[in-house]
Amino acid sequence: MNGLERLRPLVSRGLVPGVSAAWLHDGVVEQLVLGQAQVAPQPAPLHSGMLYDVASLTKVMGTTMVFLQAWAEGRLTPDTPLRAILPAFPHATTFRQALTHTSGLAGYIPHRDTLAAPALQTALLTQLQVTAAVDRAVVYRDVNLLLVGWALEKVYCAPIQLLIRRRVLSPLGLMSATFNPEAARCVPTSYDALTQTLKRGVVHDPKSAILGCHSGAAGLFASLQDFERFSQLAFDPAPPPAWPATFAQLLQDHTVNGLGRSLGWDLRRDRHDRMWLYHTGYTGTFWLLQPAVHQALIVLTNRVHPVVNDNFLTWRDEFIADFMRTVA
Questions:
Q1: Potential cystine with 301: which of 16, 74, 289, 293 (Cβ 3.0-4.6 Å)?
Q2: Domain range for residue 302?
Q3: Is the pTM of this model over 0.70?
């Protein structure tokens, strides 16, 4: 990979207002902070250390880590049924199926984004059905990690976001990462020109906005430096006690039928036949991590500002495919 220069077209082509990125390799950390934090209602500069709404990266930096801790402590295993901990949940879905998005869960919940938090949680627990896709296809759905988060709440007797803060963010030294950021420190997401409303320091995902501290699917705000710190801990042969020993088991396919997904993380194979952990976030974030060779790529953008730019997704997927073909 030629440094981070290949990310510059993200800004020059107008796919995102700005980008904060890091490439960790060979014991060095390259950084790129380019473009603007926002373009509407007026431009504002992007600074190093600003916080991004990282969207679904919450699932792997937060909820998956708490699950791995519970597994390491012998409180549950990937094959524990969710209903063993969540009796209101009617299906035989396991943590493995939920974390690999092979649960087959699907269904329509009327007026989902207008329900109050208790009603939304009850609906997601009781109104979905298991389809024929169970164990046959990876179908990415937020509800899988919401369910995992609610089960972990029962295990540890606290809201999932509080668990993430107490068990992951604080003990691992992720000093900027938070669910309650100061707006002034945040890169904005969407801007509604009609109402002149700018989302800044408020979670973009509607389900997570409703569920608040009970959402393990999104809601985290973090800086580039937080992701660098996490990545370096993944490289460390002697990480701090809060780092679960079970993390080492992630670099393999955890689906029942070899569908190419790990617990929490997606997987990508590079030209050297090495498996990388991979995850994306709706707001325009993505993260690649290969602990065995001490390499990581972190890209944070706000592709939903001022409005959602779907062209970013095509660019991202092509970029990742090229990265896997060329990485040293």
A1: 16
A2: 5-326
A3: yes
